[in-house]
């Protein structure tokens, strides 16, 4: 997996791809495979929904995915294809509607590891101050731990390692699963979360393994090789592999009547592009034959 070698301190990581370029889908797919995330500039005028629809079509993401948590009667207000993320004192969602920071998590606390493969955040308006989205290459950190402390890494693979519970006031539900897993194709999957939804089961794996693993991941998430803060400008979208990176947010301040506003969409599919776009820049071996 290329993402295991990614260096988030490389300044090229923060450079956006221009969606107007003909091979933008191909560039984005390649960058997502290399780093687990990509930034794209969507300069043309249009509604956030139209931008997200165009991006999903270009990357063949299919229809937006509604997380399991939002399929209950108590939470149906959040079961929209596109979620507005902006401060709202009338709403009690702990992530969407506050200006507070967000600790490391993956989206979909009730969904199985790997179910929500892609998250897109489209920026309508940036915060007056703060509000950077944080990205952690938890997959690469896990791969490093597997080399240096295999028993600790083993604890993270336990299907009983981490329980996540809803912190929405309306509903009391939770789900238990591993922190990392290996899929049928041998690729690593991440569910690393370290916030107030978490209950860790320190009895799994070799004695002391999960404590060491957690200490390692917390230190790694401060390492510039694995961690990046992205400040999106209006018209930019951040696309990331929710099954391969963890994310969070710096707290922020709004100006009156100019609230930070992101629109989020989730997808069960991995970004791909059409074969013609993938090979557009490469010479074909049959040329001249
Ligand atoms: Fe999130």
Overview of this protein structure:
The protein is an alpha+beta fold and 289 residues long. The protein has one domain (9-278): Double-stranded beta-helix (4-Layer Sandwich). Helix content is 20%, strand content 24%. The chain has 6 helices and 17 strands. It has helices at residues 24-35, 48-58, 138-148, 150-156, 209-220, 275-278; strands spanning 17-18, 37-41, 83-85, 102-105, 118-125, 129-130, 133-136, 162-165, 174-177, 180-182, 188-190, 198-200, 227-230, 236-241, 246-249, 252-253, 261-267. It has a 6-stranded mixed beta sheet with strand order 1-2-14-5-17-3. A 4-stranded antiparallel beta sheet has the order 4-15-7-13, with no helix packed on it. The chain has a 3-stranded antiparallel beta sheet with strand order 9-8-12, with no helix packed on it. Helix 3 packs across helix 4. The longest helix is centred in the N-terminal third of the chain and has 12 residues, at 24-35. The protein is globular and about 55 Å long. Mean pLDDT is 92; it is low at 280-289. Fe (ii) ion (FE2) binds next to loops. Fe (ii) ion binds next to loops.
